[in-house]
Amino acid sequence: MSSIPYSAQIRHVEILQRNVNQTTSISVYRDNALVIPTEAKYTLISPNGDKIVDSAVASIADNGVVSYPHTASQLPTDKQLGEGYIQEWWIKIDGVAHTFRRMASLVLRRLYPTVSDIDLTAIYTDLEEVRPSSITSYQKYIDDAWYQILRKIRNKGMGYEYLVMSADSFYEAHRHLALYLIFRDFHSSLGQSNGRYLDLAQEHQRNFLQEFDSINFIYDEEHTNKPADKDRRKAGKPVIYLNGPSHRRYHRYSLWRSY
Amino acid sequence: MALKFSQIRDAFKQQVETVSGFKLVKVLPDYFGRAQDTIAHKGFTVSVATSAQATERQRRAVGVYLQSDIQIRFSYRLRPLDVYPTDYDLCLDAEEQVILACLNSYASIQPEVQTRYISSSRESTASNEYMITTINFIVMHTIGD
To answer: So what CATH class is A7-107?
Structure first.
């Protein structure tokens, strides 16, 4: 057993679609580099403890990414949807085996983001001009913002993102968060204590928090790929009333009633 | 053939515009760079800063020979993650292109126009968003009827 704390890149619960061929993968990092394992095996455990895939050989790409191709028949339509699936990646690095665990959800549909570079440059034309020479797109900021939102959805008890049917619901929040990350990085690079980029970063951070708190969406309560109520949007943040409604008007023998 | 001061300024403007991306900014040259929103990437101004006599006879009928200082100021946007040395170097390269463009022949407007590069100065704005480069030339030319 090695005590080296390798970092598996696990940004979010792995989403597996039911009855679909798909590849699941994991990357392990150490010292700013992808680790290249010598051997890898994959196990998928269902919520009731059954092993759907048991120590199957996983492939290792030249760059070190470990992956396993699921067939549709491994995740058939009678499999229980939802949370509680566990992936176990048995990975041998420098002769020592490590088991990385990642939670997984079995779903009908994934939720895809709706923001891309053109949505950022639509409101900041000069983002095209100030894009760092090391990148050709702001995708890494967009992706990081997306994963932050996915984690926040669960952490705040808003539900499960894969049950949200209206992908557009997260558009504004996602765009503000991506812009916040971009401008904060710009500000950080310039090494100043204030400035336009800091102002913009703070503005978008405020807007993101405001937008996130007011998100509402069409939700698939029963996980049937149908909205619970197509005409009614579910608030991401529940409204809590700290006082009860007036009882007086409901009393049959109200003080205000004359007999 | 005599030339107006404005024609000299316009001739320099046309030479600078031959450099890719350079465009004239419509603010007074003296105001250029004082406020953030007056500058833009590869925006430039041309000013006929001062003029002085040349040591020759001044006969209006044949034209008065003058020496004018031409000042070109341009801004170059620095990308936040490439401020130095990548964009700093690109700004220096752009300055060189502008100098060489301005030293091109002006024979098409006045054969006897002579241009000489004098100096450059470079500074960055407080926000670190732009470099502002000032290039000084001397031009010998003739005004008259």
So the answer is: mainly beta
